[in-house]
Design brief:
By secondary structure, the chain is α/β, with parallel strands linked by helices. The chain has helices at residues 37-50, 60-66, 72-78, 80-86, 91-94, 102-118, 124-133, 148-152, 183-192, 227-242, 264-273, 304-325; strands spanning 30-31, 53-58, 137-142, 159-161, 164-171, 180-181, 213-217, 248-253, 277-282, 289-290, 297-300. The strands form three sheets. A six-stranded parallel sheet has the order 4-3-2-8-9-11, with helices on both faces. A three-stranded antiparallel sheet has the order 6-5-7, covered by helices on one side. A two-stranded antiparallel sheet has the order 1-10.
Length: 326
């Protein structure tokens, strides 16, 4: 299947060196905080209520808590044929499986995209998060590629998805700096798929070099940072400058130690360098906080659904109390 019969000229784009946003230095004084959960919720709610800016840092744990799990029952229900044929264990490792043909590889990825990006509506947890910050000067930095922030109502201009998008494809070798919307194509592939393969005529080819296409995911040196990606990176850079003005809260959600140099470590660096910045880290298992942050860091080790729900309830309570007092 041809993606484009005619490739439009790609205007020279402004390249953003995103390494300026990264940090590879972990803290040396991590601790699990011992404060009672209720006190942490109260303090986190107060920080968010008073914040001028809220920078959200979202990792895979957020989408997993929302319901987009990559293993177990959900994987078995959606990929039973792939499990039987290839012995796949989960959706994450399946992405690295050495399929022998393009028909098989595209058969897997169109299904993966459909199940995790195309079919799911805006999930409740993401909607609740949007309601929590929509009145604030917010921005989203995320390694998630499932488009849930956009579906939940977050402004496209306020999202920087650093690792790509399950709904876009690129030249496998990155021969030109452009990505392509593949949502409708993937939906058609899923309908035509048989025996874990798509028909040969549906296999996409690069419109420039004629080679195979791949998902626009940061998995090797050929990841394409297209014009839209660079615009998002530039918007993020501008937003970081705004954080220095007023009170800022870094709301980190489900970020572990898989790629900590993108969100976790840079967020900690911001807290160290800016006294007007506070960190709220929500993570079911890894909410460790540098002890040196003192009260400017809150690490809540609970299910994200519970934590965000309780913070939302507490903020509404604070608002109601303020109305009564006024």
């Amino acid at each position: 299947m041809e993606i484009r019969k005619h490739l439009h000229i790609v205007r020279r784009q402004k390249k953003v060196d995103w390494t300026q946003f990264l940090c590879g230095i972990p803290a040396r004084d991590y601790i699990f905080q011992k404060e009672p959960y209720e006190e942490q919720i109260t303090q986190a709610s107060a920080y968010l209520k008073e914040a001028d800016h809220v920078l959200i840092g979202a990792g895979a744990g957020l989408s997993a808590a929302a319901g987009l799990t990559y293993s177990g029952k959900r994987f078995q229900e959606n990929f039973s044929d792939f499990i039987k044929k290839y012995g796949l264990q989960d959706m994450y490792s399946a992405g690295f499986y050495p399929f022998q043909t393009e028909e098989e590889r595209c058969g897997y990825w169109c299904r993966h995209s459909y199940v995790n990006r195309i079919k799911p509506p805006a999930l409740l947890l993401y909607q609740q998060l949007f309601d929590l910050v929509k009145e604030k000067d917010y921005f989203v930095l995320t390694t998630n590629v499932d488009h849930q922030f956009q579906k939940a109502g977050f402004s496209e201009e306020r999202i920087f998805a650093t690792q790509g998008d399950y709904g876009r494809i690129q030249c496998m070798k990155g021969c030109h700096p452009r990505t392509y919307d593949a949502v409708s194509m993937f939906a058609q592939m899923v309908q035509a798929e048989k025996d874990c393969k798509i028909p040969s005529y549906m296999v996409p080819k690069c419109p420039v070099c004629g080679g195979p296409m791949a998902m626009n995911l940061r998995c090797d040196q050929y990841f394409v940072e297209d014009e839209q990606w660079n615009e998002a990176a530039e918007n993020y850079g501008k937003y970081l400058k705004q954080l220095k003005k007023g009170k800022a809260v870094l709301l980190e959600l489900g970020v572990g130690f898989n790629t900590p140099s993108i969100i976790r470590f840079p967020f900690e660096k911001m807290v160290r360098e800016h006294k007007n910045t506070e960190l709220i880290r929500l993570n079911r298992d890894e909410a460790v906080i540098p002890e040196s942050f003192g009260e400017r860091g809150i690490g809540i080790n609970r299910d994200l659904c519970d934590s965000l729900r309780d913070i939302t309830i507490e903020i509404k309570k604070i608002s109601a109390d303020h109305l009564q007092d006024s």
